[in-house]
Structures are given as C-alpha cells and as structure tokens.
Amino acid sequence: MKAIRSIAILMMFCAPAFAKEGAVECGNLIYAGTKTSKCFSDEFLTTVQQKTSIATERRFKAVKLADDELFKIPFVIMTGEDDFNLPAKERENLKRYLESGGFLLASASCSNQAWSKAFEREIKAIFGNDCLKDIPLDHEIFRTIFTIKDLKLSKSSGMSVLRGITLNGKIVLLYSPDGLNDSSNAEGCCCCGGNEIQNAMEINANILAYALLH
C-alpha cells in the first residue's frame, strides 16, 4: 500500500519533534491528579508493527499530563469513567502538546456518559466550543492500514462516529463517546456499561499510523 510505504519512508528519513532512538512509544495518560486508563487494549501497537515498517513498543508508557515528559511521546491515549476536572497545568500542557505535533486518542470507557461530558467540557474550555468536528468515513484516517467502512457498535445495530480536532490541516485529537478500548483484547476488562465499537483494534491501528505519517 502506498500509505504504508510512505510511513516507512517517514520513519527512516524524518526527524520529527518527538523522534527517539528505537521503537515508537505510546503514552497512557495520568490526568486529573491520579486518573488513568486501566482498560485500553495495547493490541493495536503489535498490529501496527506487524502490518507496517513502524517499530512500536508493545506496551503503553504511563505519563503524567502535567509533566514535561509528555513532550517526548508522540501519541497518547486517554480514557476512563466518571466526571473529572483538569487542573490549569494539565490544560496548558495538553494544548501545547497538541499544538506541537502530539496526538491524543480519547475514548469513554464503557461509553461512560459522565466521562464523555467531562472530556468534552475540558476540551472545549481549551480549544473553544466548536472545536470537535465529526470525521467522515471517507477521511484518509480510515484507510491507512485497514479499510474501515463502518464503526459498528457491540450492543446495538447502530453506528458510532469519531470526532476530532484539526490544527494546521492535520487531525491532532480523535475522540469517541463510545468505547474504543478494544476490551476483548484487554485482560480482565469488559464493556458491560455501554456500547463498544467492534472494530476498535483496526481503527486504533489506523489512527496511530495516521498520527505518525502526518
């Protein structure tokens, strides 16, 4: 695939702001003090390594949203349940991180409505009320590795939608109010509280490839 060849070229010859020797690290955010993502499968990291020329670490690296270490990691995930508030330092770091080329993948664990409401409130406080836009299925992000034709939900016949923030022509944040956690590949986790997107692993792999390609 042309996209995959482009990724390989990028990884071999480019030196982005977040470049490091060895495999690409993906962060698991610690935010709002001590909240973190406990049930988000890292299976997509292995898939990206198998399907492309990108070398990835096989496990997430825990990173605090308030720490400068955040800026050493090109891609982070954020999920959880229940309401939360980001302190001023975390809001500031998240804004600077995304404006500097970092990428955030966010998903409500078990489609938790309280978490989704809190996440949207925090993001809009940083980037404005109209910052989150629906991402159409014909966007290239759905074709980087796998061809994604729909976002099927596990507990209904309906479909989901991804919402994102675009800065300088590139999506830098993708968010789903439905679970992208791929809990079937996360030991000891389930999605008993709400819908989960069935093809989450393929979607997450596509998102990581897009984040590194652009």
Explain the overall architecture.
With 214 residues, this protein is an alpha/beta fold. The chain has one domain (2-12, 22-213): Domain of unknown function DUF4159 (Rossmann fold, 3-Layer(aba) Sandwich), CATH 3.40.50.12140. Helices cover 29% and strands 18% of the residues. The protein is built from five helices and eight strands, in the order αββαββαβαβββα. The longest helix is centred in the middle third of the chain and has 15 residues, at 113-127. The model is unreliable at 1-20 (pLDDT under 50).
Overall pLDDT: 85
What count of structural domains? 1
Shape: globular
CATH topology: Rossmann fold
Keywords:
eight-stranded mixed beta sheet; 8 strands; 214 residues; Rossmann fold
What's this entry about, in short?
The chain has 214 residues and is an alpha/beta fold. It has helices spanning 2-13, 43-51, 88-99, 113-127, 200-213; strands at 26-31, 35-36, 61-64, 75-80, 103-108, 133-134, 163-167, 170-176. The chain has five helices and eight strands.
